[in-house]
Amino acid sequence: MTTTTQPAAADSSDGGPGLKASGLYSRQLPTYFPPALLVVCAVVVSGAFALFGSFHPVPAAILTALAYLVAITASSAAVENSRRAKDRLVTGIVYCCFAVAVVPLISLLSTVAVYGIQRFDLYFLSVSMNGVIPSMDAGGVYHAIVGTLVITGLATVISVPIGLMTAVYVVEYGRGRLKQAITFFVDVMTGIPSIVAGLFVVALWILAFGPGQTNGLAGAIALSVLMIPVVVRSSEEMLRLVPNELREAAYALGVPKWLTVVKVVLPTAVAGLTTGIILALARVIGETAPLILTAGMASTRINGNPLEGDMMSLPVYIYKAVRAMGLSGEAGVYAEERAWAAALTLILVVMLLFLAARLISRFLSPSKG
What does the alpha-carbon distance between residue 301 and residue 20 come to, in Å, rounded to a whole number? Predict the structure, then answer.
């Protein structure tokens, strides 16, 4: 008779020799220790600045982050083990990078909100600058809001079908040199400066209608030149993420390829496609140079017709207000207030567009039927 002996299992409850030998079991720092250590580092660095020189938030924050990284790594290596020390070091670096990315954004939004709220009210949003002279404490941004919505709406109508169908061709049908040529030119168009797009449309408009013909449609075409490559690249990446098994399952059921793209591929990628379109829209909604050249900057009246003369937009309105800040007396003060309030309005418009896009992608997703 043969007997087998089972090896003794390492007791994980009390930190048996197996876990101790592998380095997986060790003491741990308390959960409150990292934030408490960060506070201590901040207090020490702030005290050193106050003692030896004038306090400045940026150097103090940098020294606090460096001191925290060194202290948390040394503490973890002494109490825990080298693996946890490396993990805490990398985690701290990630948090620092996140702070570097978020703090400027928060600073920008808070600055615009603080200065823009002084004039931002219902009156400012509901009237235009028609008949308002620089020295008057009057006028609003309604005509610029209308122009921005009309121009960017037309640019979206032009860009989204072209960009989406181009991406579908590249991913689903493209082969050979034509696909390579399309990909190459899309990449080149992605890096085109906005002023070049405006000059291209101005030259096109001069050839078609003669000099001096600026309107909202020309501005929309200029923005679409900038928007199309972004839509193509983002849509292309989203379509590539759709599993091939879904396409093969549709083909196995006898579904044609075009219907598979329409009924399977596009609905599956609708959330990513919507995000890409909104990113492209956010890329162009704040452009100023092409709109100055194509849509003009002299309009002060409410103009909702893209074919009827100059059309004001929020970026151009801000540009004009900033230029007027150099005027003496109350005119410069009023111009500065209008500039900050218009910047706040533009940020809110972009936020509303992002919210609408998220809601649309949520309701159109396959999980919602």
Answer: 78
Residue 21 lies in a domain: no
Do 304 and 243 belong to one domain? yes
Range of the domain at 195: 124-368
- Would residue 189 count as lying in a domain? yes
Q: Which two tokens mark 321?
A: 């207000």
Please give the angle made by the CA atoms of 31, 35 and 41, to the nearest 5 degrees. 135
Give the per-residue pLDDT at 18: 46
User: Which distant-in-sequence residues (6+ apart) come within 8 Å of 74 by Cβ?
Assistant: 85
Model pTM?
A: 0.78
* Each residue's pLDDT tens digit, 19-28: 444 444 558 8
CA dihedral in degrees (120, 121, 122, 128; nearest 10)? Answer: -40
pLDDT tens-digit profile of 48-99?
877 877 777 788 888 888 999 999 999 888 888 889 889 999 999 999 999 8
Determine the residue type at 231: V
The model's pLDDT over 157-197, given as tens digits with 9 standing for 90+, comes to: 999 999 999 999 999 888 888 888 998 998 888 888 888 88
Are 335 and 118 a contacting pair, CB within 8 Å? no
Phi, psi of 92 (to 5 degrees): -65, -40
CA angle 306, 143, 310 (to 5 degrees): 40
DSSP 169: I
- Domain boundary at 84, 116, 148, which? 116
| Residue 280 belongs to some domain of the structure | yes
CB of 127 within 8 A of CB of 145? no
